[in-house]
């Protein structure tokens, strides 16, 4: 019994953060193709963020590929609808990723949290005691990175574990 506990304590956790982008699924496939054998002694966690509506911004909040724009007078009802839609999108993304992993013979744990993707990913790393974070990197261009920042750069600077950025 104590030997099983010892083995469980040594088990490493790898987390892949996914969204609707092709780049995040490229990162997931990279993990499955290159680290598949390590999942005999490690655990794979797939994480998706539920973006929260930003009603004080001109940029809007993501709803899947779309964005929600609202005035400063948006009702809690509208925000609730947007949050529920984002939750459903995240659960759908996790289901798709779980299916991809199952087709490769890899079982996974899935998780989703609401919030800003950069912060939610870094918080999830700590919450789930992740040993390696894997994220896809998309080329957003200089202007978009300047104004919005880079998720991969934020995670490299703030995640409390090593970060592997998979370029497409």
Strand order of the largest sheet: 5-2-1-6-7
The number of domains: 1
Second rung of CATH, namely the architecture:
3-Layer(aba) Sandwich
Examine the coordinates and then state which fold CATH places here, giving the name of the CATH topology.
Rossmann fold
Provide the CATH superfamily: HUPs
Mean pLDDT across the residues is 80
Low-pLDDT sequence parts: 1-8
Strand content: 15-25%
Order of helices and strands: HEHEEEHEHEHHE
The rough form would be described as: globular
Structural class: alpha/beta
Main CATH class: Alpha Beta
**Biggest sheet overview:** 5 strands, parallel
The number of helical segments is: 6
Rg result: 17 Å
Q: N- to C-terminal separation?
A: 44 Å
Number of strands: 7
DSSP helix fraction: 40-55%
Provide a concise account of the structure shown.
Helix content is about 45%, strand content about 25%. With about 170 residues, it is α/β, with parallel strands linked by helices.
Jot down its keywords:
two-stranded antiparallel ribbon, globular, single chain, disordered N terminus, 168 residues, 6 helices, Rossmann fold, 24% strand, alpha/beta, 5-stranded parallel beta sheet
Folded structure, characterized:
The chain is built from 6 helices and 7 strands, in the order H-E-H-E-E-E-H-E-H-E-H-H-E. It has 168 residues and is of the alpha/beta class. Strand 1, helix 2 (22-35) and strand 2 form a beta-alpha-beta unit. Helix 4 packs parallel to helix 6. The longest helix has 28 residues, at 76-103. The protein is globular. 29% of the residues are buried. Mean pLDDT is 80; it is low at 1-8. This is UspA domain-containing protein. Pfam families: Usp (PF00582).
């Amino acid at each position: 019994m104590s030997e099983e506990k010892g083995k469980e304590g040594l088990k490493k956790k790898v987390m892949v953060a996914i969204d609707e982008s092709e780049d995040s699924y490229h990162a997931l496939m990279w993990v499955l193709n290159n680290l598949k054998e390590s999942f005999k002694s490690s655990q794979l966690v797939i994480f998706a963020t539920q973006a929260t509506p930003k009603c004080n911004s001109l940029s809007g909040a993501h709803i899947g590929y779309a964005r929600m724009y609202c005035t400063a007078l948006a009702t809690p009802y509208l925000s609730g609808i947007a949050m529920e839609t984002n939750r459903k999108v995240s659960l759908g993304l996790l289901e798709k990723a779980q299916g991809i992993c199952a087709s490769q013979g890899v079982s996974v744990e899935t998780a989703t949290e609401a919030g800003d993707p950069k912060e939610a990913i870094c918080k999830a790393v700590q919450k789930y005691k992740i040993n390696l974070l894997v994220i896809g990197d998309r080329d957003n261009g200089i202007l978009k990175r300047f104004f919005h920042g880079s998720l991969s750069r934020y995670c490299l600077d703030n995640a409390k574990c090593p970060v592997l950025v998979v370029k497409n």
